Amino acid sequence: MLTFSYYAPTSLNQACRLLSEAQGQARLLAGGTDLLIQMKRNLVKPQFLIDLKKIKRLKGIEYDPEKGLRIRALVTHSELLHNPWILGYYPILAQAAQTIGSVQIRNKGTVGGNLCHAVPSADLAPPLLVLNARAVVRGLKGKKFIPLEEFFCAPNQTILKDGEILQEIEVPRMPERSKAIYLKHGIRRAMEIAIVGVAVLMALKPDRRTCAEVRIALGAVAPTPIRVVEAENSLQGKIIAPEEIEKAASIAAAHAQPITDLRGSAEYRQEIVRVLTARAITHAARII
Amino acid sequence: MKEKEGNKKGKQLSSVSRREFIKGLGAGALGTAALSGGIIALKEAEAHPAEESLEEGIKIPLRLKINGIRYKVEVEPRYTLVDVIRDQLQLTGTKKACDRGECGACTVLLDGKPVYSCMTLAITAAGRDIMTIEGLASGEELHPIQQAFLENDAFQCGFCTSGQIMAVNGLLKQNLNPSREEARNALAGNICRCGTYTRILEATLDASQRLRKGGGNRG
Ligand SMILES: Cc1cc2nc3c(=O)[nH]c(=O)nc-3n(C[C@H](O)[C@H](O)[C@H](O)COP(=O)(O)OP(=O)(O)OC[C@H]3O[C@@H](n4cnc5c(N)ncnc54)[C@H](O)[C@@H]3O)c2cc1C
Ligand code: FES
Ligand code: FES
Fold first, then answer.
1. CB distance A40–B124 less than 8 Å?
2. Which domains does chain A have, with CATH numbers?
3. B151-171 confidence digits (pLDDT tens)
4. How far is CA B82 from CA A48, A127, B171, B188, in A?
């Protein structure tokens, strides 16, 4: 690893100041499970490393029955897995966290790092997209609220500007009679980047047959994690039936723009999107 | 050598002179530190002019608590925990294989939880409880997990073993009665090139039984 100067500020304000003073030559360090690999390979060469881990404001999970959930940026995947609010009200997040890397990675990797590294396959992105989460971003000028859909710009690129730090993620309450599911396809079950990730949130009307609202998000099949509104619209208001599910799944597959790489061909990924989307919808609708 | 080159390149590219904005950073950091007692790990480093610390890759005195023993080391911020443990402290039970968070050979416990020490900067482990394989046995007496590995023939070349044992130790600190599936899950981040997985799994379940009988995992 190349040399760098290391800073461990204790407040968000300090961190923002250091970050903007460094004029693009600094990187923020959370768990380091992505960043240190990039630095060891000299893919990124920061002159300054600003460690966020001494900032108490970036830690912890809060829940309010009215407002919903607040996940601070430094919350680790292991914390998600064991948090009673997550397990009780947002189990999809624990389900997704469980698929990440290994216990060693989950003990260090953070929610903020997962989102800010902004790879198309980030496993927390599709679940948070279907939960309508929004990012709370802190800069020198104060706070900004950004819907997660607008957060990702390109591979490895978020909407964050120089001097800005992701402070927390706000997740509203799930709708009535709803269920959310994340399905990840990889070759191994552990230590595996998603070939395709699909998250579905399904809310039923009181008859428990009609789709009141559905949200579908895909990972690893476009330059960023995406919502597929066209597929959602085709199912909204319909009675859940196999043909409707197939139709929505096919639309989702058609809107995926995967690439071919050593993990899978574009055609293969598209087919997996169709299969997993149908499976997730069926499953979510059945267990509500 | 390579590293020096990389740095020079960065210097040429920056529009503001490097010296200039390092000064800015140093002053900013010191200013707020004075206000809030901030910049914890770096107080000692801050005593040096920041320019110097960068150009020379200066070392920072650091205290590490490993297996209950306090060690004083000097590290550059870029040193990883595995390198400090092995090269400076000669605790060579912890192994380094992939050096990029993929094999598990370097697994240690940080505040009781398994992490990859090759993916941990030593400076970020200051003040925390670090446990390596050397901390398990008491004198000549092996820890029940080690004993279980021995009696179940759970290794061949042994290179992955200390990492495997530390991963098992982390699991059995949280859950003294893991199911087969939970044990597999806890070991998924540790690769064994010799392919001893079945035996390692048996040893893990055996160790959990020994520890339950013995009244807990104090490892
Ligand atoms: C072996 C291995 C397996 C993995 N498996 C998976 C997997 O299955 N699924 C998956 O999704 N990921 C996986 N990862 C990737 C990684 O572990 C996760 O994305 C993790 O959540 C990253 O978090 P971190 O805290 O370690 O990020 P860091 O490496 O600390 O940071 C990542 C990036 O985000 C920036 N950043 C961090 N926090 C903030 C913040 N608050 N505000 C602004 N910017 C910030 C950093 O500057 C850096 O550029 C794996 C990694 C490894 C090494
Ligand atoms: S050496 Fe650290 S995980 Fe392989
Ligand atoms: S015993 Fe040889 S690598 Fe596991």
1. no
2. 5-51 (3.30.43.10), 56-171 (3.30.465.10), 179-286 (3.30.390.50)
3. 999 999 999 999 999 999 999
4. 22, 34, 21, 20
H/E element, A278: helix A266-286
Q: Which residues of chain B have pLDDT under 70?
A: 1-57
Does B151 map to a domain?
yes
Examine residue B99 and state whether it is found in any structural domain, yes or no: no
Please give the backbone phi and psi of residue A148, each rounded to the nearest 5 degrees, phi first: -60, -30
Q: Calculate how close chain B gets to A79, using CA atoms only, in Å.
A: 12
Q: Is the CB of B101 under 6 A from ligand 2?
A: yes
Task: Give the list of residues 6+ apart from residue B36 with CB closer than 8 angstroms, or none.
Answer: A10, A11, A14
- Mean pLDDT by 10-residue block, N- to C-terminus, for chain A (288 residues)? 91 94 94 97 94 97 96 98 97 97 98 97 98 97 96 97 96 97 88 92 96 97 97 97 97 95 92 97 87
For chain B, the domain total comes to 2
Residue of chain A with shortest Cα separation from B103: A191
Which residue is closest to A10 within chain B, CA to CA? B38
**Which of the ligands is closest to the CA of residue B82?**
2
Cβ of B85 less than 6 Å from ligand 2: no
For residues B122 and B185, the answer to whether their CB atoms sit within 8 Å is no
